[in-house]
Amino acid sequence: MRPASPVASDTAPRGGVVFSGLPSVPGAAGDDWPRPPGWQRNGHWQTIGAALWARRGVAAPLDWLRERWTTPDGDFIDVDHIVPPGAVAMLVLFHGLEGSSASHYAQAFAAEAQRRGWAIAVPHFRGCSGEPNRAPRAYHSGDFEEIAWMLARVAQRWPDWPRVAVGVSLGGNALLRWLQEAGAGAAAAVRAAAAISAPLDLAAAGAAIDRGLNRVLYARMFLRTMRRKAREKWARFPGLFDLERALGARTLRAFDDAFTAPLHGFRGVEDYWRRASSRRHLRAVRVPTLVLNARNDPFVPGASLPDATEAGPYVQLWQPARGGHVGFAEPRAPWDMRGDVAALPQRVMPWLAEAAGWPGR
């Protein structure tokens, strides 16, 4: 049945937005989620605290298994996965910029997936699994063709389970772009999807991360590994891009203009950011999809987030006042100063199960 058109809900959490026509976010009505540890009073602390100090919902070390898949262009991607005995469903998670299966959110989703009896697979974007990739390309925020191939390959590898997908940050925007390009055909690959802290408007997100404190706290961190990868790429494929400009980049905008855009066939950073941004095409989505963005995300300005008129009938927007950038950790007890990132999958996965029509999963 086609979902009803979204309308604003009176049960939205304070500072947030919930729309009818799709499942409500479990437990969200009036509970002011998330409630981070008391010392995390702004989006920066919620972002950093979750990534560096929060628990990850993991009681014991995760037993990831790795497979290497050959891509159609002769390259490879590494896929980490956990398949619990008697698994009933599959969660495919796409990580963020320079992320991996070791990222805090990936570990939290893996732990919750095991608790629910779901298998989980984390396909690494090229160059993100600890080894340089072989082809004259990398990955980018609008890489919907790569998402399409990864999901098709997951379906071939594990054909017996129904699937849902989660994308985080860059992976969330890329997942949304695939959903938009695939339209109704996406339902053959996934029953439901969620994009978490996705930079839906790349120009706005790029401008935010490149200025002020963000440039010091985050842009430098990302650029450190990205410049190293650019040097490695040049050693294998000299002449693909301007190495001097890439190594001299001090902002993500400058790096994307020197490296990411030319490597993937874009005319420059503005062409890349415009074509890769998912905000303009949300109404093209035809699979139930949750789009979760905190309004105090340091990377994704609240003013750049879409409203209900842009979302379309298959997209559920949830925009809580707090959470930072993938910083949705909550304390286990009043005295818990670390918090636990398990709070994120414990909200998202029930929504996915209901949207996918999986009662009891």
From TrEMBL:
Entry keyword Hydrolase: yes
GO molecular function: monoacylglycerol lipase activity; short-chain carboxylesterase activity
Alphabetical list of Pfam families matching this protein: Abhydrolase_1
Domain AB hydrolase-1: 91-329
Entry keywords, A to Z: Hydrolase
Gene3D superfamilies to which the protein is assigned, alphabetical: alpha/beta hydrolase
Domain of life according to the entry: Bacteria
Catalytic residue positions: S169 (charge relay system), D297 (charge relay system), H325 (charge relay system)
InterPro entries (UniProt xref): AB_hydrolase_1 (IPR000073), AB_hydrolase_4_sf (IPR050960), AB_hydrolase_fold (IPR029058), ABHD4 (IPR012020)
Family of the protein in this entry: Belongs to the AB hydrolase superfamily. AB hydrolase 4 family.
PANTHER family registered for this protein in UniProt: ABHYDROLASE DOMAIN-CONTAINING PROTEIN, ESTERASE YHET-RELATED
This protein's name: Alpha/beta hydrolase fold protein
